[in-house]
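S.,

Sequence below, as promised.
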Amino acid sequence: MQQPQGLILDFDGVFYKFNPNSNHVLSHTAATAARNCGVPDTYEDLLAAFLRAGDPHAFRRQWQKQHNVDWLKYHHAYHDGIDVASINSQQDATAAFAELAARKLPMLILTHASQPWVKRVLSHIGLHAFLPDSHIIGLEHTNGLKKSESHEPIMMAAAILGINPDRLAMLEDSQGNLVHAHAVGVQTAFLNYGKPLDPQPTHVRVQAASVSSLVKGLGL
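The prediction came back faster than expected:
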């Protein structure tokens, strides 16, 4: 494998993790956003549903079918409502990113979150100056198409960076997001936080417990 010329980065789970006790806060944010976007269920019922699901990020497709709720409106309402105090930054990832940026390595964040949320977090952890807005692709920029569902978001990232996919690396903490990247030739790196995949899937080139170790494993 040739040394990558650029890097596509995931965001949540890589640059930060939510506080262990944040599920109730995030579920409150999600329930409030859903109500404000036209879901007729009571706040209490929505809160209970989100707490059971443990995944307030996800838009419920039945809202669109039953209540004509716009997924994009919910996407922004939810992320705009999150307090950055609910996150813990990952110092290893922050330091590794700053070092790569200082070396002028072309980089781009490809996330299922929103671009304004990414910008708020980057500002919060002191990295806001390193990436232009054009290099932060939120789910709103892919019309809701996820990198776990299609290679198109990866190809969009490659086009913005101006680098062929086979000369790019992609770093993720969700190995399922690497399947389509691997299929188009991207060198894939999985952040396993000390829980390695065994056996290692064919769509994962390297895996390690830290971002700095993955960077070294990619030859960057």
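The longest helix spans residues 23-36.

Coffee later?
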